[in-house]
Design a protein that fits this description.
The chain has one helix spanning 2-24, and strands at 44-48, 54-55, 61-62, 65-70, 79-84, 91-95, 109-113, 127-129, 141-143, 160-165, 168-173, 186-192, 198-203, 209-213. The chain is mostly beta strands. The strands form 5 sheets. The protein has a 6-stranded antiparallel sheet, with no helix packed on it.
Length: 214
């Protein structure tokens, strides 16, 4: 009887420890090109993970381009595009729980350009998944979203950062604010349109990126 009681106590203790360990586990923190943690409130350039032209010993990398804004089709809102030969515009991140101050993988977050000076002052620089473009068969990433306020009304404003490998991350649209419901879940890639614009859009081929402190 004593042996059975002891075995039960040990089993309970091990199970409780495992559950507490799982509860304490947090997603991995995203790091920039210098190996430092991404911080809420700081601005970063989102640059391609490859081809890598070169990095200084301080982690400042020369890449083949960056992200910017362009007026495509309509004057406003501005769409998110990849531009070659430039670091593009700096961006910042706001996780669903920004109080913790760090950016983690697999966590719902808002992405926004760190500028209020655009040709579309009435639209925010916050990323948002646009309505489906029937003509092009694409879901494009545009601006005009809002920060925070998770709910059905803001479901298209939430993105995630996922780790691809030791050298690269990717951005995905796969909101888990309502885990019991089905949502569109896909990588963010680059779509080249008929005018040569390299537009961010949902894709089967992810745009592999790194984050460089602005």
């Amino acid at each position: 009887m004593k042996n059975m009681l002891l075995a039960f106590v040990l089993l309970f203790a091990l199970t409780t420890q495992a559950l507490l360990g799982a509860a304490d586990a947090s997603p991995e923190q995203v790091v920039d090109t210098s190996g430092k943690k991404l911080r809420v409130g700081l601005s970063y350039f989102i640059v391609p993970a490859s081809p890598l032209i070169g990095c200084t010993r301080y982690g400042r990398c020369v890449k083949s381009g960056g992200l910017s804004l362009a007026s495509i089709g309509e004057s406003c809102p501005l769409d998110v595009v990849f531009v070659a030969g430039s670091s593009g515009l700096p961006l910042s991140f706001s996780p669903v729980d920004p109080k913790k101050g760090v950016v983690r993988v697999s966590t719902d977050l808002n992405i926004m350009f760190s500028t209020d000076h655009t040709s579309c002052a009435e639209y925010s620089p916050v990323w948002k998944l646009d309505h489906f473009d029937v003509a092009k068969g694409q879901w494009f990433v545009t601006t005009g979203g809002s920060v925070g306020n998770p709910g059905w009304g803001t479901i298209r404003n939430w993105f995630k950062i996922e780790k691809v490998d030791a050298a690269a991350y990717k951005i995905v649209y796969c909101p888990t604010l309502f885990p019991s419901s089905k949502h569109l879940c896909k990588d963010v890639g680059v779509f080249v349109d008929e005018n040569g614009y390299r537009r961010l859009a949902l894709s089967d081929v992810p745009f592999k990126v790194k984050f460089q402190l602005a």
